[in-house]
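Appendix B. Chain record.
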Amino acid sequence: MTLAPWEYLFLPFNSRNFPDLFHPTWIASAVLLVVLGVLYAVRTKALRRHQPYLDLWEWLWWTGLITFAQLIVEALFVFDFFLVLATEFIGIGVLVWIRFWRFPPILAAHEQRLARERYYSKQKFADPEATIRRRGGRRPQRRRR
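Structure tokens predicted for this chain:
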């Protein structure tokens, strides 16, 4: 370290100026982008009937795609280091915000709605007569006097 810490912010982000950060950053971005794509495909297929979970994964997918692809582009085109740091902090911050602040109340409300629906369906079919089909169309005829 030959410069003051704040002077590194305006150096180009390449392997010569940042030998210990450059390769791990773009490799980790590429790996995380692939992992996020696989998780998005698997989880959206598994949760296709639960809209709040699909929304969560949609938000995570687009935020991760933008963040990790932008980090790869910044490494490829040698942006200044402060832009790389800003992308990392903002992108990871938005991912954490989505997962731990934005969606937990929505997911909790969805779970309560599902529990309520299960309770009412159990209550509806608790009586054995509720599961027996009635013959439709014919009514017993009354006897005439």
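Further analysis of this model is presented in Appendix C.
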